[in-house]
Amino acid sequence: METTRRTWGRGGIEVSALGLGCWAIGGEWSGPGGEPYGWGAVDDEESVRAIRRAVDLGVTFFDTADNYGTGHSERILARALGARRDDVVIATKWGNLFDEETRTALGRADDSAAYARRALTASLKRLGTDHVDLYQLHIGDADLVRAAELRDVCEEFVREGLIRAYGWSTDDPARAALFAGGPHCAAIQHRCNVLQDAPEMLALCAESGLVSVLRSPLAMGLLTGKFGGGRVPTAGDIRSAPPAWLPGFGTGGGADPAWLGRVEAVRSVLTGGGRTLSQGALAWLWARSPQAVPVPGFRTVAQVEENVGALRYGPLTAGELTEVDRILGR
């Protein structure tokens, strides 16, 4: 592709155009009612190998959160990076409360300034570092007045050298715009994929000079093709008992036939030129916005190698982008 790098907004921080999302490597954890919040069982040794392979292949951006695996994701990332920590950009998030001992989310958030500092201190310890490169508010619907206060708190963290930049993980353009006004806001994390476009958020990031960190770039796995033919997620996988905010999967874990139909409709466009379906879905995002840094999840070396392989092909052409929109009726 014309560039395999992105520069973070006003901070001049450079990252690879593909990052990796570290939710899945947090392993199994549960919500307050015992419902699965992870992606199923993981092999920590394979997670470590996958992260190291990604760095070898040129990936320099890793996105995690303090509650992924109730701290386990941050610890595994730190272990895998070791002495190579300064070769990469680490993003983490805060706001959702959890119990690390019982591996349980508490089902509530804390938007206080005091908690932001406690959470950052804990993340720095788990990550084995003296600073976080991108610190992101993880309460997508946080009150705007409190969010403005937290933006100011993040500016304090920048001045203290604890973080280099900050952002907000939210799908609301009005909330994103509030953080975008901060001097050291560098990115907004939001959902975007072939099946769920986000034109307002992409436009806001472009106009504000911010990177779009794109979560769910493969539609929680639907754009990998692995859920066709009646295949379902395993027990312990959040997709086996999906919450209301996770569309595309029905109760019992089966993929929604309508969503699978849309995937099949665009498959031939996305897999043109030798790409796999996943690689085509990532190529669509890079064509959709030059600010895009998708962060697909991973659990294996093979998944990392396939996703990084998408960089060789670059973005879809303008014609292919238009054809996808035509097929999906956009």
Describe the structure.
- With 330 residues, the chain is an alpha/beta fold.
- Helix 5 (173-180) packs parallel to helix 6 and helix 7 runs antiparallel to helix 10 (318-327).
- The protein is 37% helix and 17% strand.
- The strands form 3 sheets. The protein has an 8-stranded parallel beta sheet with strand order 3-4-5-8-9-10-11-12.
- The protein contains 10 helices and 12 strands.
Q: Give a quick account of the main beta sheet: strands, pairing sense, barrel closure.
A: 8 strands, parallel
Number of helices: 10
Residue-averaged pLDDT, rounded? 95
Bin the helical content: 25-40%
Helices and strands in order:
Elements (H helix, E strand, L loop, with lengths): L4 E4 L4 E4 L3 E2 L22 H13 L4 E3 L8 H10 L7 E6 L1 E4 L4 E6 L3 H15 L4 E6 L6 H16 L3 E7 L3 H8 L4 E7 L7 H10 L2 E5 L41 H14 L6 H12 L3 E3 L6 H13 L4 H10 L3
Parallel strand pairs: 3-4, 4-5, 5-8, 8-9, 9-10, 10-11, 11-12
Antiparallel strand pairs: 1-2, 6-7
Helix pairs in contact: 1-2, 1-9, 5-6, 7-10, 8-9
List keywords for this structure.
8-stranded parallel β-sheet, 12 strands, two-stranded antiparallel ribbon, 330 residues, alpha/beta, 37% helix
In short:
By secondary structure, the chain is α/β, with parallel strands linked by helices.
